[in-house]
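Schema walk-through. Below, the input block comes first and the output block second. Nothing else is stored per chain. Lengths vary across the set, and this one has 108 residues.
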Amino acid sequence: MFLTFLLQVSGEGITQLIFPIAIALVVYFFMIRPQQRRSSETKKFRESITKGASVVTIGGLHGKVVDLSDESVIIEVDKGVRLRFDRTAIAREAVTKTSTVAPTSTNS
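--- output ---
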């Protein structure tokens, strides 16, 4: 059936058929596929969280993981202050930035 449809389409009809297919491919490769990849990476990260890891929640709260379960994570944000979050609320691992001062050269 599809083959008969293609045979009925003349020269101008082919270009009209190719344009929507090209748009669909562009949308898939530039929008849908990267989102699926990010989603997969996020899922792997959330499964690999361990005790002692410094994390940031989706709300921007920084803390250290002190306990884990299948569904939730307990984060210590200050001495004695522990909060329970769902695993899906963990956005990323916290990166500590070390401040290094670049040496300045004085050419006399």
